[in-house]
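Predicting holo structure, alpha-D-glucopyranose bound.
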Amino acid sequence: MNLEEHRLRELLAQLSLKEKIGQMTQLHSHFYQDLNEKAAGQMMKMGVTDEMVGNSGSVLGASGAGRIKKMLKNQLEKNRHHIPLLIMADVIHGYKTIFPIPLALGCSWDPTLAKRASEVAAREASVSGVHVVFAPMVDLVRDPRWGRVMESTGEDPYLNSVFAQAFVDGFQGDDLKNDLNRTAACVKHFAGYGAVEGGREYNTVNMSERQMRQDYLVSYKSAIEAGCRLIMTAYNTVDGIPATANHWLLRKVLRDEWGFDGVTISDSGAVRELVPHSVAADEKEAAMKAIEAGVDIEMGTFCYMHHLERLVNEHKILESRIDEAVWRILKLKNDLGLFENPFRGADEEKEKRVVYCRDHRDQAQKAAEQSCVLLKNSGILPLKQNQKLAIIGPFADNGAILGAWSWRGDPNATETLTAAFRSEKIFKTYSSRGSGILEGNRELLNEAIKTARGANLIIAAVGEASNMSGEASSRAHIDLPECQLELIRELKALRKPLVIVLFNGRPLDLTPLIDDVDALLEVWYPGSEGAHAVFNLLTGRANPSGKLSMSFPRTIGQIPIYYNCYNTGRPLAENGDKKKYVSKYLDCPNDALFPFGFGLSYTTFEYSGLSLAAVRIAGSMSVQVTVCVRNSGKVAGSEVVQLYIRDISGEVVRPVKELKAFKKIDLLPGERKYLHFTIQESMLRYYHSDLTFKSDDGKFEVMVGGDSVRTLHVPFVLSRGRLVLIHDEAK
Ligand code: GLC
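Done. Tokens:
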């Protein structure tokens, strides 16, 4: 044990039971400011005493270098052993410089960009006094009704895992103790929160352990393998037991199998919610179940503070359970250097220079340019210069384009789409609201129509309000609100070129409008510099390169719809079977309106020459996949080349395809590149019915293309653990 650990052990031994329990409690920041009469009264009503505040180990939701320093100073004086506070906050996709929402970043298919976004977020958060960020959120999501889909990177386990690692690397760097521009990361929500039934927030999650391991645990594991220091338990049940009281999840999987030695923290209130979950009769039993399952810090409620001491004294729980939790908390504080420097990165002068600086905003703009997805273009984009443009809609002149988890981001300081166009002075730009987000009226419509009549081209800036996605924002209908659909219909009736710019936090049902418009650019919530990013994309200064990280359904009736589905025993043939007794609907096609991996460019890309070659890598046989991609258009562009594999027959059913690799490449007009991917046996492993994770001999198919539907195919075989080619031509 090194000196530091020795000193920590000594400190742990000096703590009273009450002080240990204090370290396991996270209070909201309002308990740490000078409480007015009312707030102090509320605190007493909650049974939170001044002593408890003095003993508590971490704070939720505070930032600002000066404010944090004051808070820390007060706390250090109150705490008998001067144990520094951990300052934790929701910095999900930016602190003050807000990047596109994670669902948008996922559509960039550029993990380096995600890493840079997290580096910027950590730099701004750390200088503002934050030590730990409650990110990345890596929940797999296949249901756009769930509002928190905006925080995820979508429906694919592999893509989510690549981004999980990138986000953790960006936040933490590789020297957390000495690099004050970094923060510790807290991956969430462990586990399976994205699979809530009906897409309804906080609802039940039910799935087999095999599916949980195959699809839903993969991205959390990736974050843990990337060295993420904390993990947050989810609100939902996992096989009938809430994650926050789930031994299998928090001890067997997380600690024993994955070897995680970091801190577990409950989601806000999740310990106390074991009572309404009906697995705890009262808060005392909730405290017992959470600590036994292995929750180190209780966030937002006081079950630990109010009951753990008695549970120990009644020998209902061992004090060693508490010691192991407090040890991990002290170790995290030590690894962040807080004992030597409790203020860590907080620095008022540097904060003024770093937060929201030009370089950060430039990076946010580039990220937005790469995260938008061009879903339709009849050819009217990019915009021809010197046109009269009418920008119409609730997002025409609206800075609220930061998303639901943009905390310190400021919509009032955020450039609007109209302002971006007007600042460039290339177009004569008119603007009109046309409709509210949820409500409209004839007057607004008439004004918008009048404005649009004088234009050559109409840009309809429409979408969801930021608070229509995010936490506690599930929607049972995922259409654009009717008032906006009416606006689009009336604009369409003017028979002018019509471009939709869509601001939203989830895949929406675009069927009602997609045939009426000439182009549609999905911009999600593009962040602080999103408006200019959209300007650059619409005018061709930047060429759209985003690809969907989540399927867009044709209608809500198809949900859940995702690309890596099972074939079923009666698959609908690709030629659209006329047979009755096959897996299909009477009233809707099976396929998505826009599939996973799809996105258009202002140029076109041709794929050819898909071939396989046997190669020996590190002593074992692998297969090298080669494909030629050519820019067959007139402008330079970036293409995300995607590689999928299908296991033709497994011990359990296997998806019709699974993303296994991708590369984003830039090509000049006419330029071609030969790309190589390597298939290794490890890519073919999956969870069998007995939960062993291994590959089987048999036939496979590799598919390569620019989305999950249009791909070239070549078969290959795995025989006695070795990859063997079948010399067929690429189909
Ligand atoms: C919320 C969210 C979680 C967030 C936490 C702290 O309820 O579920 O994602 O980090 O509370 O704000």
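The pocket of alpha-D-glucopyranose is lined by residues 60, 90, 134, 188, 267-268, 471 (CB under 6 Å).
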